[in-house]
Amino acid sequence: MSKQYKKIFLTVGTTKFDLLCEYILTEPVLTALKNIGCKEITFQIGKSAVEPGIYEREGVIINMYRFKDSITEDIRNADLVISHAGAGTCLEVLEANKPLLVVVNEDLMDNHQLELAEQLQIDSHLYYCTCDTLISTLGVVDFSLLNPFPKADPTLLINYLDSVFTVTS
Amino acid sequence: MAGDDFFLSICVLLILTFLIRIIYLMLVIITGNCALIKTKTIRTVFCIGSGGHTTELLRFVNKLNMKKYQPRMYILADNDVNSEVKIRETEKDNNNFYLARIPRSRNVKQSYLSSVVSTLYATLYTIPIIFKLKPDIIFCNGPGTCIPVCVVAFLLRCLFLLDCRIVFIESICRVRTLSLTGKILQYFADIMIVQWPNMTETCFRAKYFGRLT
């Protein structure tokens, strides 16, 4: 039996992502989430036009809030994270070693952060989709096939800088 | 009017000398001769962008040898509140650091024409700050403050008033193309750092040392 993703954390950072917020509450999406084991959703909605609060739909508990000082705790508690394409969020989730599905907000044009999500999918660190393809993506992807994200390491750069910029005495 | 001719030729001569100095410096920078030897410490400036750029740069600052790279000055945009909190958190065990604020050269969604005007204003504002601190190295990684600071540093270097090196670190978000700041600074920065191996083909001078943050 494939892994069950009981607790799912959704986050849109400081953006407004109305489509995803409305979409998540619909029956087909919730069914797709239940199929991978979802029972609880924590949803950081940012500036999106939905009311924060605790909802129960299709037997899934959904806790929506706007902002917290830090989402680190919510990431750690989750079995799966679904996030917007923000670079900071993507990297934080990958560093926490959590399976990640990025939902691209197509209303944000000229979104250079998309470049990063694309590359991270090519390197098999995450999957990404749009709202339209969310259900089909949830149906086909296997999060256990994702590669762990290697740790960042500035040591080589710092050694180089120390060799170029030197101090006497 | 021999006096006028004399004055004019002096002006032409000065401008020519200045142009030759600019071209010479750009050649030095592009050929990668950026060694710097200092006594005791290296005076360092960090140009703080905003949001994710701030976080990226501060994570890097954390790994630097604080005894060598000091005093440290952080230059940030005047309407940037969040970055100051992050800087004070990074520097909580130190006191040899300073903050300076300059007008933002380009706000998100600002048109290119008005960006030119506001960048000029920010540049003038930056001159006394850089002149007073006389940094040896300037680190920058993103939009907001780094163009004015680097322009001022470069011009002061052309005028022999400052001898400093610019290190530009391109954001991890840039996988295939340089940012606007990166495109401009690739001709002025002594060291260009990128965080994806393919980017060394996009930018002829870029150096890749792995993912930094």
Tally of strands of chain A: 8
Order of helices and strands of chain B: HEEHEHEHEHEHEHE
Number of domains of chain B: 2
Strand order of the largest sheet of chain B: 4-3-2-5-6-7-8
Number of strands of chain B: 8
Radius of gyration of chain B, CA atoms, in whole angstroms: 18 Å
CATH-level-4 superfamily name of the largest domain in chain B: Glycogen Phosphorylase B
Supply the helix-strand structural class of chain B.
alpha/beta
Bin the strand percentage of chain B: 15-25%
- Rounded to an integer, what's the Rg of chain A over CA atoms? 18 Å
Read across the widest sheet of chain A, the strand sequence of neighbours is 3-4-2-1-5-6-7
Strand content of chain A: 15-25%
End-to-end Cα distance of chain B: 64 Å
The low-confidence parts of chain A are none
- What would the average pLDDT of chain A be, to the nearest integer? 91
Architecture per CATH nomenclature, i.e. the level-2 architecture of chain A: 3-Layer(aba) Sandwich
Membrane topology (chain B): Single-pass membrane protein
GO biological process, one term (chain B): dolichol-linked oligosaccharide biosynthetic process
Family (chain B): Belongs to the ALG14 family.
Protein name (chain B): UDP-N-acetylglucosamine transferase subunit ALG14
Polypeptide structure, described:
The complex is a heterodimer of chains A (169) and B (213). Chain A is an alpha/beta fold and 169 residues long. Chain A has a single domain (7-164), classed as Rossmann fold. Chain A is built from seven helices and eight strands; from the N terminus they run βααβββαβαβαβααβ. In chain A, β3 and β4 (60-65) form a beta hairpin. In chain A, α2 runs parallel beside α6. Chain A starts with 6 loop residues before the first strand and ends with a strand. Chain B folds into two domains: 1-33; 35-208, Glycogen Phosphorylase B (Rossmann fold, 3-Layer(aba) Sandwich). Chain B is 44% helix and 16% strand. Chain B has helices at 2-30, 51-61, 82-90, 112-133, 146-158, 180-185, 199-202; strands at residues 36-39, 44-47, 72-77, 97-102, 137-140, 165-169, 191-194, 207-208. Chain B has a seven-stranded parallel β-sheet, sandwiched between helices. The radius of gyration of chain B is 18 Å and the shape is globular. Classes of the chains: A alpha/beta (169), B alpha/beta (213). The interface between A and B is medium-sized, with 27 and 39 residues. β8 of chain A pairs parallel with β1 (36-39) of chain B, so a sheet runs across the interface. Chain A: Keywords: Endoplasmic reticulum, Glycosyltransferase, Transferase.
